[in-house]
Amino acid sequence: xxxxxxxxxxxxxxxxxxxxxxxxxxxxxxxxxxxxxxxxxxxxxxxxxxxxxxxxxxxxxxxxxxxxxxxxxxxxxxxxxxxxxxxxxxxxxxxxxxxxxxxxxxxxxxxxxxxxxxxxxxxxxxxxxxxxxxxxxxxxxxxxxxxxxxxxxxxxxxxxxxxxxxxxxxxxxxxxxxxxxxxxxxxxxxxxxxxxxxxxxxxxxxxxxxxxxxxxxxxxxxxxxxxxx
Length: 229
Hints:
This protein is an all-alpha fold. The chain has helices at residues 2-8, 17-39, 41-50, 54-96, 104-114, 121-137, 140-169, 174-228.
């Protein structure tokens, strides 16, 4: 029966240490890649164009322009989400924890900065903040209260706010954003989860633009043919 099958089922193997090393490397790479893409994006684009054959330069430039537009919107979304996390954390410490209000600014900045780390950012940002709240207040109850608030904030952000905000900025349905996050994390890990939504938007926009150009070209050909006929 079902119970016997469950009993015979082998336990899942523990994650290899190499998996955790890979996650750590990805967590380090994501901020570096994002930083250099923002600060020195034009130089990176020029170097990439020099490596391409001349016939591919024009299409590559179109993709690069679309990438710039999408990444600006995506980075703006990340900034807004980091700002929300920081402000909410500040208000929790400033108003909800009387003996911890002196740490409100530090806790808010830390929570906002660590929020940008994909997948585990809320854990890296949440655990020290929760411990700080408990120690400064001298109360486990207050620490648990902050834990509940952080969990609710993370749930609201990851399941509702993030898909809605990113989807609105990049003209993608929130359900599609969630699907892209799941698929990109499954195949490409943390880096894929961070860059999955903008990559999907870039591919979608380039494909639509290419299809529109082909349709306009076919329409022009038909018009020329009809005039000539």
